[in-house]
Predict the structure.
Amino acid sequence: AMDMWLKEMQLEGEGVAMSYKIKETLLRKQTQYQDMAIVDSEVFGRMLILDGIVQTTIKDEFVYHEMISHIPLFTHPNPKKVLVVGGGDGGAIREILKHKSVEKAVLCEIDKDVVDACKKYLPEISCALDDPRCEVFIGDGIKYVKEHKNEFDVIIVDSTDPFSIAEGLFGGNFYKDIYEALTEDGIFVAQTETPFFLPDTVRKVFSDAKAIFPVTKLFMAAIPTYPGGYWSFTVGSKKYDPTQVDITKIPEMDTKYYTPEIHKACFVLPKYIKEVI
Ligand code: AG3
């Protein structure tokens, strides 16, 4: 039989790539916004690939989706209304809806084809998109955030990398609009790339958030399919400090990565990352 390998250039033109042995290509489509594929891989199971970049896999998606959701939701004492910008696979929504306090979770995804493909091929990840507490809105996140003031307790930016359609989801202009879309004690979190390979990106995002939010923190999680294997997230908060949460009060939840101890530990940064931000 013929061996098929997917090669992901981890940093365009910088000489690093990751390869995955592929069993089958389930879908390949040029959408209105990007080149989309769903493939079944030997080691990570089915994966969503956008413009050649692995976005999420059945095997390791839990790390990213738990951390991007439970850190802000267990920092805010009573999150009721949550917005996810991007995140069309629905993984963050699945984790958000594990919180009983949440009355409504809006997913604002620009590319309807991503939502449809994930519903069909990645049901383990997208399963909560049909929950009555979830509203799926297909549209531009930048515009959506501008049009909703003082409305969300938590806003999660689950974007692709800061090029092409996602470029505007990184940086001060967008964070200002996010600040205004949050309630007076709201919290925002964004996936903010790899400090090892993209220190300048992480530094800029962090300083842009810091210029707007009274509390700004960086946390890390180990994600095998992302470049460097160790990924950053930036929290901007109006009031509650995610590092000051009383972790003895965090209730038990069905997770595979997040624990109250991890909530504390993920903010402890290696020296080279502290020097980045
Ligand atoms: N979030 C994808 C994070 C960026 C991954 N970047 C990379 N591998 N270079 C969207 C998928 C999870 N919902």
Q: What stands out?
A: The chain is about 25% helix and 30% strand. The domain at 61-274 is CATH 3.40.50.150 (Rossmann fold). The chain has two domains: 4-56, 61-274.
